[in-house]
Write a structure and sequence with these properties.
CATH architecture of the largest domain: Orthogonal Bundle
Number of strands: 7
Bound molecules: iron/sulfur cluster
Distance between the termini: 60 Å
CATH superfamily of the largest domain: Hypothetical protein, domain 2
Helix content: 40-55%
Structural class: alpha+beta
Shape: globular
Largest sheet: 4 strands, antiparallel
Strand content: 5-15%
Oligomer: single chain
């Protein structure tokens, strides 16, 4: 394994994504924030949009802890999975300006599970610990030729592989290898630094095929009511977009149909229908159309608003 670790680190030194801002800081809050954002959002969007914007608004753990939840949710707007923002806020309040260093203590904080706790320990404190995200799990499964392993087996193998002399770079290298070389479809084995140690690459039909994702289709119907430059929105109570503002729901009436669009949200593939109405039955909050960007509005509602408001 020592040779594989060495080959991986050499590759990382040349090809690793060293310029990512959260890899060039020792501020644990910044590292933690990046990990939470990266869980469901593409690296470039986090790097260029959400991470700098959020830090401009809440530069420290303390500033986040003092913020109102609605302001935190508004700053999270567009990222989706709003429970992440709520947990971030709760964690900021609980940690009292200082993040714990112990893995077990980190696990006690809201929204911090095995992955995030180990990522903070490794990337923030350079502790000798394995990190397993989707990319690393794929590399581990292929490297050790594990066929449909339990998560615990993947973590055990990742732990076996950790380079105790440089655990932080080792884990970052595995992460980059998974996202740049050991791709879900058509991994670039011929340029892989650990090809000669990889047992899975010897049986590509077993270990390098990916299963097709299954999505749930849903059709949604929303009401559009605008008066005096204000739009009627309502607070979402469902698991999707909880506590975010959204258009009120409506029974579809053909004559009042305005527009239809597609939207993807987690495992859902949504068809959204918009109807102009004169009154709504949900509890309404009137939002000034000129102040929409200051309100916690879901990405689905934002997309609808761009169709309605020219
Ligand atoms: S050799 Fe191929 S399958 Fe094995 S880790 Fe490298 S890219 Fe992945």
């Amino acid at each position: 394994m020592i040779n594989a670790q060495k080959a991986l680190l050499e590759w990382y030194t040349i090809y690793g994504r060293h310029t990512l801002p959260w890899r060039n800081t020792t501020d644990i809050y910044h590292i933690y924030l990046s990990e939470i954002m990266l869980q469901q959002t593409q690296v470039n969007r986090v790097k260029n949009e959400y991470y700098p914007q959020f830090l401009a608004k809440f530069p420290t753990l303390e500033s986040l802890s003092l913020a109102k939840e609605e302001d935190v949710l508004a700053s999270w707007s567009g990222l989706g999975y709003y429970s992440r923002a709520r947990n971030l806020h709760k964690t900021a309040k609980l940690t009292n300006r200082q993040f714990p260093k112990e893995y077990k203590e980190l696990l006690q904080l809201p929204g911090i599970g095995q992955y995030t706790a180990s990522a903070i320990c490794s990337f923030g404190y350079n502790q000798n610990i394995a990190v397993v995200d989707t990319n690393i799990a794929r590399v581990i499964k292929r490297l050790f030729a594990l066929k449909e392993p339990k998560n615990s087996i993947i973590w055990d193998k990742a732990t076996e592989l950790v380079n105790s002399k440089n655990p932080r770079s080792h884990n970052l290298a595995l992460m980059d290898l998974g996202s740049m070389v050991c791709l879900p479809k058509n991994p670039k084995c011929t340029t892989c630094p650990i090809l000669k140690y990889c047992q899975g690459s010897k049986n590509p039909e077993i270990y390098t095929q990916s299963k097709k994702k299954e999505y749930e289709k849903m059709e949604l119907f929303y009401a559009v009511l605008i008066r005096n430059n204000h739009i009627a929105l309502t607070s979402s109570t469902g698991s999707m977009y909880k506590n975010m503002l959204q258009l009120p729901t409506v029974d579809p009436i053909e004559e009042q149909f305005i527009a239809k669009f597609k939207h993807a949200y987690t495992k859902y593939r949504l068809t959204v229908n918009l109807y102009r109405v004169e009154k709504v039955i949900d509890d309404i909050i009137w939002i000034d159309l000129d102040k929409l960007d200051q309100s916690p509005i879901s990405s689905l509602t934002k997309k609808a608003l761009t169709l309605i408001i020219i």
